What we know:
The chain is an alpha/beta fold. It contains 16 helices and 23 strands.
Amino acid sequence: xxxxxxxxxxxxxGEFVPSTRIFEKRSPLTGEVIAEVAEAGRxxxxxxxxxARRALRGPWARLTLAERSDLxxxxxxxxxxxxxxxxxxxxxDTGKPVSLARRLDIxxxxxxxxxxxxxxxxxxxxxxxxxxxxxxxAINYAIRQPVGVVGVICPxxxxxxxxxxxxxxxxxxGNTVVVKPSEETPxxxxxxxxxxxxxxxxxxxxxxxxxxxxxxxxxxxTSHPDVDxxxxxxxxxxxxxxxxAAAVGARPVSLEMGGKxxxxxxxxxxxxxxxxxxxxxxxxxxxxxxxxxxxxxxERPLFDRFLVALKRGAESLRLGWPEDPETSMGxxxxxxxxxxxxxxxxxAVALGAEVVTGGGIPEMPGRLAGGSxxxxxxxxxxxxxxPIAREEIFGPCALVMPxxxxxxxxxxxxxxxxxxxxxxxxxxxxxxxxMARSIEVGLAWVNEWFLRDLRTPFGGAxxxxxxxxxxxxxxxxxxxxxxxxxxx
Length: 488
Ligand code: NAD
Ligand code: 6OD
């Protein structure tokens, strides 16, 4: 092992397991190699799936609901006890500011376990009494049972948060899991294995296999015949491939996928709040949030003022080391992803966009020069029919466009294949309700963005997703609902 380079291995049946194949994980901050990660072949994936199957039938199944729920509370507490370790691992993998990961990623990673441990204890099921011809009658009641071994495929933008968003409800419902974290962010998933062991989660309940998608751990897991259900967060194109894999054996899928989200700013909005919220929705996590805004529609009378304020905000973002309290934006996840984002920056210019701010690669000092940094960018001057307005870029950038009428902006916002989220900025209550109903998305915020109550349904419309997760909605996917009919 090279000096200072971590070794990240799989977590299978409660043990940390290496592979002969490894791949390098580079820092988004500097481009330097920070970890050597084990890559799972079919054998490791098979071992993980079998461990999950054994645990499903064995020790995990024998726990009462209350005992299982207590263990998940202990997992949450275990994450909080090792807060600094999780924080360091997440920041190292993603390059995001410590202030962001401290506020969002790690506490949400823990909170997910508590919320779903509580949800399963309080969720009700149906009961129906019925008449029968003989007059004796019958009763029906529904029970929820685990779906089995769940394959969990995760992205890199909010690694611990999005992984536990699936693992927590899956385990709360009595399933066992095999997680395939993104190849870009392997660390926190393995670290969670240490917490699982420390608090006494039985071996095989939580398993992690590292690697890539095609012809690697991702494909081996999703095509494994002994995986009963697959939950995925990532790009829509990948989701389509996973859906095909799940079709073999007719296994259920939950898909949380891409977006091309519109913010809609009316002239009657609270300007300060709208600018602050839109700055967050465009640039938080360096624009790498599925719910993030890449299209900003502003009512024409407010357009110039809003643009000036948004530009000022974008230009006040500070790029730098994650630990620096002044840093408000990190790098993109990798050079490969930066090349994709930059291809859109170039395309925008070629199509005749006016670059309001940004548009390139910033000059970073010292070791940071090797990182995948990019400038926060705003454009005007392009229409809804351009790739800049239609395709998900997943970077810190947005196209700002004027609109004149409510019906017009509804049609334009909806004229897109994606349907994940929107943020509507207005002080007109009737309009807020009308707009929230009219925009074709799974999540509509009014005068806010990314404010989350974990009991609420989360997911995308159109090509942004299939199914809803969150609160009792997660139970729909992670349990098999069985009706029991008893003749009296
Ligand atoms: P991605 O689709 O490239 O990868 C996601 C995961 O799928 C990774 O673990 C990857 O290794 C795996 N994978 C890739 N190909 C596979 C295959 N053929 N079989 C099995 N697994 C495979 O996505 P990403 O680049 O990691 O994440 C960014 C994308 O995720 C964006 O499109 C973003 O909008 C989306 N996203 C959506 C949500 C949501 O809740 N809707 C949340 C976060 C991110
Ligand atoms: O907050 C959540 O539960 C969630 N799934 C957020 C997704 C963010 C996408 O990048």
